[in-house]
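Checklist before submission:
- one chain only
- standard amino acids only
- sequence pasted in full

Submission:
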Amino acid sequence: HNKKSRELGTKQIYEFIKELKAAGFVDIKVTGGEPFSRPDIFKIISFITQQGIKVDVSTNASLIDSQRAFRLKSIGVDMVHVGLDGHEKKIQESLRGKGSFQATIRGIKALVKADIYVRIGTVLFLGNQKYLTEMVDQAVGLGVNEIAFSILKPIGRMKNLSQLTIFSYKEL
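Returned file contents:
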């Protein structure tokens, strides 16, 4: 990686993983940004599993195809958590960006076909809060193992985006 990047290099990551193992860590969650945008991500995941550490990956699955899914299975990934916030294109893309829906669905299907444990992570917001049943039905139809819902609470730069603000906890 270039010197301007704040990302660790592959060897630095290996050293960090060794330190985590020595400290007694037994699980590591690989997340990002998008972890599969790193050219060395499969080497890193493989290194983690070779240390006897369980690994789960958090991704939007847009860069996962059949070959990559089966490669993840072969190197021992325990779970892949995929962000999917809508049962239809319009809802998903309002939060995750144009073109994200089909790419994510394609990635989920590849992961399921490779027999990897898949959890869909859905952020609840005004655009999808009325479609819980449809989202669960979609998850079942895709053959995933689990769906987890979380509530969006805009903070930082998103704080004033009232169009995203969801119902209050009291309404749940």
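Reviewer check: Confidence is low (pLDDT under 50) at residues 168-172.
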